[in-house]
Specification:
The protein is mostly beta strands. Helices cover 4% and strands 46% of the residues. It is built from one helix and 54 strands. Strands 5, 6, 7, 8, 9, 10, 46, 47, 48, 49, 50, 51 and 52 form a 13-stranded antiparallel β-sheet that branches. Strands 26, 27, 28, 29, 30 and 31 form a six-stranded antiparallel β-sheet that branches. β38 and β39 form a beta hairpin. The radius of gyration is 41 Å and the shape is elongated.
Length: 624
C-alpha cells in the first residue's frame, strides 16, 4: 500500500470518528439529529481509460444528517412539544431572521413570547374572541396575560347563547291543586213554598290547576218531591250537569244533605300536551235555609286566592326588527272578570324609535287609559326584552286589576308573529313550602360586570303532561313565565322548549340592566323516575386571569383561566422541505433554508404530510 492511500484512509477514519464522537456527545441533546459519514474512493484524472489504474485512496464524500424519528421523553413542562412525524418549528431571531428546529423545549419570556433560547416560536395568533387569524403570515406567538374580562349570560352571540337546562320531571308526581277548590254560596234563603221548577241562578269565575279561568253557572231548581236540584254549566256550553245529590232541608229548614256538592270536569291539558286534566271543586251551601217568606239568593264567592290573581301574558310572539317608526302591531285576547263575564282585550305596540315601542290597551273595543303612563317597551341588540314589562292595569272593565307580562315577546326577525293573549291565574309559589311546587333547581348566571347571580326555577305539575315555570332572581318573589312545558304520551318534550328570560338587576349595580337571555329546556323528559338535572350550561362568566396553557395535537394553544374559561390564544405552525438533508446546520439544534433544501412549506400539525404534536414531551436525538 502506497503512502498516499494509507494517509487518505487515516483521514477518512478520523472523520468517521469525529462524526461518531459528535453523535455520542449529543446523545441527550433534545432535537439533535444524528449524522453519518459517507465515503468515496479517489482516482487520478486521466485522458483515457486504463485497466491498470489502482486509485489513490479514499475520502469523506459527505456528512449526511439523518432526519428520522427519535425517542420521546416525558417532561413536566406543558410547553415542551415533540413532533410526531414530519415537520420543523420555525424560530424567529431578534433580527427577524428565520431558522428551523426539531427542538421543542419552549418557555415563556418576560414579554409572554414562547421562546427557545433567544428565538421566538412562530405560529398563528388569535383575536380577542379566541378565533385564529390564519389569513396572515405566522408571527411570533405571544401569550397575553391580561385578564380575560367578564361576559354576561346570553352575550356570547352563539346559536345556543344563554342558559341550557335539561332535566327529567317525575311522571309519577301528582298535579298540584292550585285551582279553585271551593265555591261558596253565602246567605242563601230558599222559599219552602216555591213551586216546582222555580230556579235560582248564579254566575262566577273559577280557575283550573293550570291557571286558566272559566265561567261557572250554578242553577238550583225546586223539585216536585221537595228539595232542590243542583246543576252546573262550565264555559257557557249550554248543557247543565246535575250533581249526584239534591239539596235537602229538614223540617226546621236546616240543610239535611246535598252540601257540599262535588263538581268535576275533564279539561284538555294545555296544547300540545297529551291527556286531560280534571277540574274538581265543591259547592258549599253552608248556612243556607228553607223557610216561608220568599227566596233570598245571597251571594256566590270563590274562596281561593288563586282565582283573584290574574296576569295577561304575551307568549311565543315576535316584533319585526326592521319596522319603520310608526309601525303598529296588536295582540288580542279576552279575560273574565270575577263574575265570570268575558271582556275583549287588545294590547297594541307602536314603534317609537329603534328597539323602542309605545304600549296601549283597548278593552271591549274602547281605548283604556293606563294610569300611571307605562314605560316604553324596549329590546336589547339581541332582540330580547329589556324594559317596559309588566304593564299594570287597574280598574278595567268588570273591576279587574291585572298585569300584562311581555316576557314571551322578542324582536329578532323580519316577520310579525302573534299568539292569542294568555290570561292565567299566576299565584307565586312559596319557596319555603314545597307543597306549592313540584321540582326546583338553581343556576348561577352572570351580569355584564361578571357578578354572580342565582336564578332559581320552580316547576309545578299543573296538568296531565303540563308544567308551569316560575323563576326567582337572587331570592326575589317568583315570577310566572308564559306558556307551559308540555310532553306527549311517551314522555317526550313537545312544547315549551325555551323561554325568554329578563330580570332587572337590583341596585346598587353598574351592570347593564335588565339581564336578558334565552333559557333552553331541550333534552328535558318526563319519565317515571326521580327528578334530576342532566345538563346545566350557560355562557356567562366572571373576570379571570390566565392560570395555565395546554397544546393540542393540532398545535392549538389553549389558555386556562381562573374563572373556568378556556380560550384559544394561538396555534403552532410547522414547516417542511423537499430535501431536509439540504438544510444548513447553524448549531443550537437549528437549521437554515438553502437552495438544496428548497423553500420552506407551511402547514399545521396533523394536516397533509405534517406530523402531530405531543405536549409535555421532548424528543431525544435519533440514534445512528
Amino acid at each position: 500500500m502506497g503512502f498516499q492511500q494509507g494517509l487518505s484512509g487515516v483521514n477518512a477514519a478520523s472523520k468517521f470518528l469525529d462524526v461518531v464522537g459528535n453523535n455520542v456527545a449529543n446523545a441527550n441533546t433534545v432535537g439533535y439529529k444524528g449524522s453519518r459519514a459517507e465515503f468515496a474512493d479517489i482516482f487520478a484524472n486521466t485522458l483515457g481509460g486504463t485497466s491498470t489504474q489502482t486509485g489513490i485512496g479514499g475520502r469523506t464524500a459527505s456528512v449526511a444528517q439523518q432526519f428520522s424519528q427519535g425517542n420521546l421523553s416525558t417532561t413536566n413542562n406543558a410547553l415542551d412539544v415533540a413532533i410526531q412525524g414530519n415537520g420543523f418549528f420555525r424560530l424567529i431571531d431578534t433580527a427577524g431572521g428565520f431558522s428551523y428546529s426539531r427542538n421543542g423545549q419552549f418557555q415563556l419570556d418576560r414579554q409572554g413570547y414562547i421562546t427557545n433560547g433567544t428565538n421566538k416560536l412562530a405560529g398563528y395568533l388569535a383575536n380577542a374572541d379566541g378565533q385564529l387569524i390564519t389569513g396572515t403570515t405566522p408571527q411570533a406567538i405571544q401569550i397575553r396575560t391580561a385578564n380575560i374580562g367578564a361576559q354576561a349570560t346570553g352575550a356570547s352571540g352563539a346559536a345556543n347563547a344563554g342558559l341550557t337546562l335539561a332535566m327529567n320531571f317525575d311522571a309519577r308526581s301528582n298535579v298540584v291543586g292550585r285551582g279553585t277548590s271551593t265555591v261558596s254560596i253565602n246567605g242563601l234563603q230558599l222559599d219552602n213554598a216555591a213551586a216546582a221548577g222555580t230556579q235560582v241562578n248564579y254566575q262566577t269565575r273559577v280557575t283550573d290547576s293550570t291557571g286558566q279561568f272559566h265561567d261557572l253557572d250554578v242553577q238550583l231548581t225546586k223539585l216536585a218531591g221537595g228539595g232542590w236540584n243542583i246543576a252546573t254549566d262550565l264555559d257557557n256550553s249550554g248543557t247543565f250537569t246535575n250533581s249526584a245529590n239534591p239539596l235537602v232541608f229538614n223540617a226546621l229548614g236546616q240543610i239535611q244533605s246535598g252540601s257540599p256538592a262535588a263538581v268535576s270536569y275533564a279539561l284538555a291539558s294545555p296544547t300540545p300536551a297529551y291527556g286531560n286534566t280534571p277540574l274538581n271543586f265543591n259547592i258549599n251551601f253552608s248556612g243556607a235555609t228553607e223557610i216561608t217568606g220568599g227566596t233570598v239568593p245571597g251571594a256566590i264567592n270563590v274562596n281561593d286566592t288563586a282565582a283573584q290573581n290574574m296576569s295577561v301574558m304575551v307568549a311565543n310572539s315576535n316584533l319585526p326588527n326592521g319596522d319603520a317608526v310608526g309601525a303598529v302591531h296588536t295582540f288580542s285576547g279576552s279575560y273574565r272578570d270575577a263574575n265570570g263575564d268575558s271582556h275583549s282585550l287588545d294590547v297594541t305596540l307602536t314603534k317609537a324609535a329603534a328597539n323602542t315601542w309605545t304600549p296601549s290597551v283597548t278593552i271591549d273595543g274602547a281605548p283604556f287609559t293606563i294610569t300611571p303612563t307605562p314605560s316604553p317597551v324596549t329590546f336589547n341588540e339581541a332582540g330580547l326584552l329589556s324594559g317596559g314589562s309588566p304593564i299594570a292595569i287597574t280598574g278595567a272593565a268588570g273591576g279587574a286589576d291585572f298585569k300584562i307580562n311581555l316576557q314571551g315577546l322578542t324582536q329578532n326577525a323580519a316577520t310579525f308573529t302573534s299568539s292569542p293573549l294568555e290570561v292565567r291565574s299566576t299565584p307565586p309559589v312559596v319557596p319555603t313550602d314545597p307543597s306549592t311546587y313540584t321540582h326546583s333547581t338553581s343556576a348561577t348566571v352572570y351580569d355584564s360586570q361578571g357578578v354572580e347571580h342565582t336564578l332559581t326555577y320552580y316547576f309545578t305539575k299543573v296538568g296531565v303532561n303540563a308544567w308551569e315555570v316560575q323563576s326567582s332572581f337572587d331570592g326575589g318573589t317568583p315570577v310566572t313565565h308564559p306558556g307551559y312545558i308540555t310532553f306527549d304520551q311517551v314522555g317526550n318534550l313537545n312544547g315549551g322548549t325555551s323561554l325568554a328570560y329578563s330580570s332587572p338587576i337590583p341596585s346598587p349595580s353598574g351592570a347593564l340592566s335588565p339581564l336578558a337571555f334565552n333559557t333552553s329546556f331541550a333534552g328535558t323528559s318526563q319519565f317515571g323516575s326521580q327528578f334530576g338535572v342532566s345538563e346545566l350550561t350557560q355562557d356567562g362568566y366572571a373576570d379571570g386571569n390566565i392560570t395555565g396553557l395546554s397544546i393540542g395535537k393540532d398545535g392549538v394553544i389553549i389558555g386556562r383561566y381562573s374563572n373556568g374559561q378556556n380560550r384559544t390564544v394561538g396555534q403552532i405552525t410547522l414547516y417542511n422541505f423537499a430535501n431536509p438533508q439540504g438544510l444548513q446546520p447553524l448549531g443550537d439544534n437549528r437549521w437554515a433554508e438553502t437552495f438544496a433544501s428548497n423553500q420552506a412549506r407551511l402547514g399545521v400539525p396533523g394536516s397533509g404530510d405534517f406530523g402531530s404534536l405531543q405536549s409535555g414531551r421532548s424528543r431525544i436525538r435519533t440514534s445512528t
